[in-house]
Amino acid sequence: MVQRSRKLTRATAGTERRRLLEQAFERARREQEVREEFPPAVLEDVTRAVADPALPERDETDLELVTIDPPGSMDLDQAMHIQRDGDGYRVRYAIADVPAFVRPGGALDAEARLRGMTVYCPDERVPLHPPELSEGAASLLPDVVRPAYVWDMRLTPEGVRDRADLYRAMVRSRRRYTYEEVQQLVDSGRGEETLMLLKEVGEHRIRREAERGGASLPMPEQEVEVGDDGRYRLRLRPLLEAEDWNAQISLLTGIVAARVMLDGGVGVLRTMPSPDDAAVARFRREARALGAEWPEGMAYGEFLRSLDRTAPSHLAVVDAATSLFRGAGYTVFDGQLPPEEEREQAAIAAPYAHVTAPLRRLVDRFGLAVCEALASGREVPSWARDALPLLPDLMDEADDRARAVERACVTAVEAAVLVDRVGERLPGVVVDGLRDGVLVQLTDPPVSGAARGTARLGTEVLVEVVSADVVGSRFELRVLDERP
Question: What is the DSSP letter of 36?
Fold first, then answer.
């Protein structure tokens, strides 16, 4: 599963030019009718919920949990504690207990269903829940007591799940780490036990993923810099190993949750088909264009992990790999299990469910409630069970909206990089055919876009940058000729 991260780097120069990008991002949100303000009834509902939440009785505030997030994050969904368990490991993963604050059928519940998920843009994010909840009462901030769903997972010495449980409890995180801090502490050998074991467990899980044929890989962060000369530059920042280790704990939890749902006969899976031959062929051409040949017979997950994350061209290959991860959806079942071929998330190469980000994604709230009831041997609450058939449409709509905003923002960023190169001839490779032209992967800057003209697939071409409109989130390319 590819995880994308983008941001607009703040710089001291080029204020007017940065404003153009921000206008483009605002336009993207407006055109997709992103709900930025919360109605008064929703805020009133949150105030009541914060004053009187439905708290669990179990107390696990002595558990020394920590959180790992980007700098400045306040909507903390997850906290973890890892310890040795004989020759294996015990992972406890606390997830924000959003159901404790959301009254089924209330104004907050209705608003969350309209939004579906937090929408991320390079300049800001539009949250699923009001900040009073997502960055306050429900967030697993350090040194405050919070309700949580606690996944208690035992792993073998090889990082394979042995057994797992899930329950609600009051918890208290001890410390908030950034990824950079975790990486530095682990590399120096000075990290506390949870951090040092996170590396061990994360690396075990990466190996198990490779054995399954999966390809979960954090995306490089795309940064747009405005230099002293006022020109935009595009840079892909490699993500840290610590970010990968941390992602593996979330993926493990989603795999365990899917197993709980399938064993219990009710739930909602996050599914994705395997990439078709055309998508694989196009990605091979894109990788070749960027200087990384994908050997025949090598699994795509193995290929992605073989790349050098410090090389800009290889980071561009990882970015292009998103073309393989399409067609994701949600599969609901209640009583009759879905066919085997409809259960798997192909990028992970296993059944998988969303249950680790309830502050930022609607479906997780219901998935957690279903899993906790099944784990405790109780009936699934009617409010959660009744909502299951509605979730695929709600989440598909939210996914479509978020992807449309992201596409517009990405195109605006690429237009910003190309705006000073209008009229220039840039080298590229044709990676796919289109109805009115071809899809070209430029090598420098690492931009992909439609180009007018004709050329054979896989051939190197010279491409003219005809125009670039940052606020309009568009640019125009034209194929000049094939290169010898």
Answer: -
Which residues partner with 430 through β-bridges?
440
- Tell me how far CA of residue 263 lies from CA of 240, 258, 342, in angstroms: 35, 9, 16
Q: What is the pLDDT of residue 11?
A: 37
Q: Which helix (H) or strand (E) holds 165?
A: strand 161-177
Q: Are 140 and 65 in contact (CB under 8 A)?
A: yes
- Count CB atoms within 10 A of the CB of residue 123: 16
**pLDDT tens track for 209-252:** 988 888 766 566 666 666 666 666 666 667 789 999 999 999 99
Scanning the structure block, which residue is given the tokens 């792993």? Answer: 155
- For residue 18, CA distances in Å to 7, 13, 30, 471 come to 12, 9, 19, 11
Structural contact between residues 352 and 254, judged by C-beta atoms closer than 8 angstroms: yes
Cβ-contact 240, 183 below 8 angstroms: yes
Helix H or strand E segment including 221:
strand 217-226
Bond preceding residue 445 cis, omega within 30 of 0? yes
| pLDDT < 70 positions in the chain | 1-15, 216-237, 309-310, 312-313, 315, 319, 482-484
State the pLDDT at residue 208: 94
Q: Are 83 and 198 in contact (CB under 8 A)?
A: no
Question: What is the CATH T-level fold of the domain 422-484, as seen in this structure?
Answer: OB fold (Dihydrolipoamide Acetyltransferase, E2P) (2.40.50)
Instruction: Give, in degrees to the nearest 5, the angle at Cα 407 between 230 and 314.
Output: 70
